[in-house]
Design a protein that fits this description.
Length: about 110
Amino acid sequence: VQLQASGGGLVQAGGSLTLSCAGSGVIFSRSVVGWYRQAPGKQRELVASITNYGEAVYADSAKDRFTISRDNAKNTVTLHMSSLKPEDAAVYYCNSRFGHVDNWGRGTQVTVSS
């Protein structure tokens, strides 16, 4: 599975941004897909994940502000982020997990100005 993340950029605090993860192959549509982020000097952390049938899980920091969704027909998973805060700034990574196989995409930078 190859993953391509896009949609990062610079946004003002309080603004919104949508990230997209495009996957390849049939396995992607059967995988749990998650968005992780890593800020400088910090560990990579889960932001949100979604199962192949649409069940979503969010980190406490993302609840009520971020929404993860997927379109299995298009092999994409989207993370819509709103009410962004400076502490949301990080490199965001897309991950797919099928069984014991993990795949990571290249990160996309999200910068939030205060």
